Amino acid sequence: MKDINIFCFGFGQVAKNFIKKLNKEKFNIRLTTTSRKKTEKKKFDKINYTSFEFNENKFDSKIKERVINSDYILISIPPKNGKDLVLKNFSEVIENANVKWITYLSATSVYGDHKGNWVTETSNTKPSSPNGLDRLKAEKSWISLFNERQLPLQIFRLSGIYSNENNTLVRLKSGNVKIINKENHFFSRIHVEDIANILFNSLFTFKSGEVFNISDDMPASSKDVTLFGAKILGIEKPKTIEVQNIESDVLKSFYKDSKKVSNKKMKIFFNYNLKFPTYIEGLNYIRNNFF
Q: How far apart are CA 29 and CA 19, in angstroms?
C-alpha cells in the first residue's frame, strides 16, 4: 500500500472523485481539505479527515501547518473577485513546503471565443467572461510563482464537467432544459471520472510548468447533446428559444464563446485513453446505470 499526504483546497466533485480513485487504487491516504464552513472532523469514502475553514474573510491558522507538511496539493477553489484566495493567503507557505506535486484546476473559459475553431494549449487566451478573465489572471499568478520558485506545478484547463449525478439527463428529467438556437456554437466537456483518472496518472507522469486541456474527443453544440439525451430517455425534445431570449446572464455569457478544445497533448503525455471519449458514451453509461 502506498502512502499519500494530500491537501485539497476545496473539496468539490473533482477532488472527491480523485480521492475515490486513490482509495480504489489502495493508497493509504492522509487527507486534509478546506471548506467555507467551520473546521470539523469528517469522513469520506471510509477516510477520516479534517476539513478546515477557509473563505474570503478568514481561515483556520492550522491550515499552514498541514500545507507545509503535505506532499501533494490540489487547488480547485475558483478565483474570487479577480483574486486567487489560495495564493493571497498561502503563497509563502506553499513556497516553503516540501511538496512534490501541485495541480491548479483552471477552465477552458480562458480561451474566450474562437468562432468554433480548435484551440490547443498554445492558442491565444482572450477571455471575455468574468469567469474566464479571473481564471486567466489566477493562472498567470501561479505561473509567475512557478517561475520564481520553481514549484512542481501543473495547470489543468477543464472543459464543462458532467458526472453521474450532474448531467443533461438529470436536467431533462426535471424539465429544466431548453434548446438554445445558435448556429456554430461548439463547446467541449469531460466526465469527472476521466478528470480523476488523469490526475491519478499525473502522480507518476509529471512535468513542472505544463498546461493541459482536459477534454473529451468530441466538441458539440448543447443542442446536439440535449437532443441525444431526450432521445435515449424517450422523452419529447424541449422547447427551443433564440439565444437573444436567454434570461440568465451567466448562460448568455456562455453562448458568447464557441471553440473546440483539443485534448491531444493530454492523451499523449499521460498515455491515457478516455473512459468516456464523447458525450454519447458518457450519457449512455449514465442512462444504463443510474436511470
A: 8
Tell whether 173 is covered by a domain.
no
Going by C-alpha positions, the residue among 63, 64, 28 that lies closest to residue 47 is 28
- Scan for cell 497533448, then name that residue: 265
Tell me, yes or no, whether 238 lies in a domain: no
Query: Which is nearest to 107 in space by CA: 82, 84, 76?
Result: 76
**Helix/strand/coil (H/E/C) assignment for every residue in the chain:** CEEEEEEEECCCHHHHHHHHHHHHCCEEEEEEEEECCCCEEEEECCEEEEEEEECCCCECCHHHHHHHCCCEEEECCCCECCECHHHHHHHHHHHHCCCCEEEEEEEHHHHECCCCCEECCCCCCECCCHHHHHHHHHHHHHHHHHHHHCCCEEEEEECEEECCCCCHHHHHHHCCCCEEECCCCCECEEEHHHHHHHHHHHCCCCCCCEEEEECCCCCECHHHHHHHHHHHHCCCCCCEEEHHHCCCHHHHHHCCCCCEECCHHHHHHCCCCCCCCCHHHHHHHHHHHHC
Residue 247 corresponds to which amino acid? E
For the whole model, what pTM was predicted? 0.97
CA atoms of 109 and 117, how far apart (whole Å): 14
The number of residues making up the chain comes to 291
Q: Is residue 226 part of a domain?
A: no
The rounded distance, in Å, linking the Cα atoms of 2 and 15 is: 19
**Mean of pLDDT values over 4-9:** 98
> What is the domain range of residue 52?
2-162+190-216+261-275
Instruction: List, for residues 240-282, the tens digit of each pLDDT value.
Output: 998 888 888 878 888 889 999 999 999 999 999 999 999 999 9
